[in-house]
Amino acid sequence: MSDSDCLFCKIIAGEIPSEKVYEDDTTYAFRDINPKAKVHVLIVPREHYANVAELAADDADQLAHMVKVAQRIADDEFHGDYRLIFNTGLDAGQTVFHVHAHVLTGEKLDE
Ligand code: 5GP
Ligand code: ZN
């Protein structure tokens, strides 16, 4: 999939509206449209990678940065605990092929 066809590239570019939670030069975070927890935020690199494996291979610093952003969101919106999920591949439930970290927090989560 090319960037021009990518839903999250369009969200990052502001072509599709989203509820911003955090942004910096490399990274954008916004609320999931179909939240699975009281707080459900998606963190994406501005640069397009299909999945976390591609990101980790090319830019491990960006991946580490996304973890720090997740912590910051959990600190801001809860008391710092959170679940971080990268669905990777169709059979894992990945539906958008622009790497994104799901941050679930804001309440005690089911195990
Ligand atoms: P995946 O299943 O690929 O791991 O996660 C994709 C996530 O993107 C889903 O949780 C879904 O609810 C969310 N999502 C899909 N389309 C939109 C949208 O247009 N806006 C927002 N904010 N979230 C979306
Ligand atoms: Zn993209």
Description:
One of its GO terms (molecular function) is bis(5'-nucleosyl)-tetraphosphatase (asymmetrical) activity. This is Histidine triad (HIT) protein. It comes from Bifidobacterium dentium (strain ATCC 27534 / DSM 20436 / JCM 1195 / Bd1). Its EC number is 3.6.1.17. Keywords: Hydrolase. The chain has about 110 residues and is of the alpha+beta class. The protein has one domain: HIT family, subunit A (2-Layer Sandwich), CATH 3.30.428. About 30% of the residues lie in helices and about 20% in strands. It contains three helices and five strands; from the N terminus they run αβββααββ. It has helices spanning about 5-10, 50-60, 60-75, and strands spanning about 20-25, 25-30, 40-45, 85, 100-105. The protein has a five-stranded antiparallel sheet with strand order 1-2-3-5-4, covered by helices on one side. α2 crosses α3 (about 60-75). The chain is globular, with a radius of gyration of 13 Å. The termini are far apart. About 25% of the residues are buried. The model has no long low-confidence stretch (mean pLDDT about 95). Zinc ion (ZN) binds near residues 3 and 8.
